[in-house]
Amino acid sequence: MPSAEPRQRLFFALWPDESLRQELERILTGESFKAVTGRQVAPENYHITLRYLGPLTEAQQSCVEQVADALRGENFQLTLDKVGYWPGPRVAWLGTERPPIALEMLVKALERGLVSCGFEPERRPFQPHLTFLRKALPKALPTSVSPIAWPVDRFALVRSRTLPEGVQYDIVRSWSFDGTVK
Questions:
Q1: pLDDT tens readout for residues 58-77
Q2: Mind listing the domains of the chain with CATH numbers?
Q3: pTM
Q4: I need a labelling partner for 101 at 20 to 30 A (CA). Which of 14, 119, 151, 165 fits?
């Protein structure tokens, strides 16, 4: 019996740089969030998912990378100014009251391109959010957060691996909005 083709669990995401990651960690472990209970997301895993792709073969990965290669966009500033909670998955998150038009255009362009790779269009509306707590209890969540400016000039293809010590995310490739690849 032939073995199944290896697959990697991948997603497109906005990935904060190190200084923003440190600022987010300082805020999310600071006084306003001290009483919040749940399992903290490791700061090295902070991100905003643009589109979850799932376990992909090499050929599928190549196709989604070609989609990203063709995208162009504008740099924009994302302002994280909203604290939210979803009771089903019990996650607490930071989001934005007003998603930038450039972000919405990026997600729509990704969706259009992914259809050519055989993906079904995402049915849920895009809601940009950065999960910072899992198995959260909402009663101690602050109702607001001082705005956090996130200058966005690129997006990434990220691999998700489940290890005994927890989930690990690794950037496979990243693209700036002018088309340069890293």
A1: 999 999 999 999 998 899 99
A2: 8-176 (3.90.1140.10)
A3: 0.92
A4: 119
